[in-house]
Write a structure and sequence with these properties.
mainly alpha
């Protein structure tokens, strides 16, 4: 498996439709199931001695599950198909047609706001996990959940970076817009 820096470098040269496929295959696929699995693990730990706000962690993960499900539906059902159409338009040398909501900037702005909200949510979850007390803090269950959350948070950050730093600016530029309004 290549490291993320290499992927970021390579992704700069990919056409937008290839980048969309990569994001969906490597980040969207299975993402909400991972969140739900961590939520269930947190739920099972809520009555453990020393478990501080684990029920809140489970609640936050449940909210993340719902929000990410909705987010992916918007990306996969509306934004990504338009971005792929933009790539076809560019490849064919055709004139870019206006997006049904005016500009790709508007849904991108919403997606980026949602990205920031998810990263903030996982920062909050990780802060709660750092507050765990003994004996739960040193239990295998706590360590495993914390490791999964750390890995997921880093993975989510990679996903967001590919979209926010490569895909979205390119889509905006393809419409002939210099930056997000």
């Amino acid at each position: 498996m290549k490291d993320f820096k290499q992927t970021m470098t390579e992704a700069q040269a990919w056409p937008m439709d290839k980048l969309v496929d990569y994001i969906m295959d490597n980040y969207h696929e299975g993402c909400v199931m991972r969140v739900d699995s961590m939520r269930r693990e947190a739920e099972m730990q809520k009555n453990q001695e020393g478990a501080v706000d684990i029920e809140l962690v489970a609640t936050l993960l449940g909210e993340s599950y719902e929000d990410l499900s909705n987010h992916f539906q918007k990306e996969e059902g509306i934004l990504f198909p338009y971005i792929c159409e933009l790539q076809i338009t560019l490849d064919g040398g055709y004139e870019v047609q206006a997006f049904h909501c005016g500009s790709v900037q508007y849904p991108i702005r919403v997606m980026m706001t949602e990205h920031g909200g998810e990263l903030d949510r996982y920062d909050r979850i990780m802060g709660i996990m750092k507050q765990q007390q003994e004996p739960f803090a040193s239990s295998e269950a706590c360590k495993q959940l914390t490791n999964k959350l750390e890995e997921f948070t880093a993975w989510l950050g990679e996903h967001i970076k590919l979209e926010d730093e490569i895909l979205f600016p390119r889509a905006i530029a393809a419409e002939g817009m210099p930056t997000i309004e």
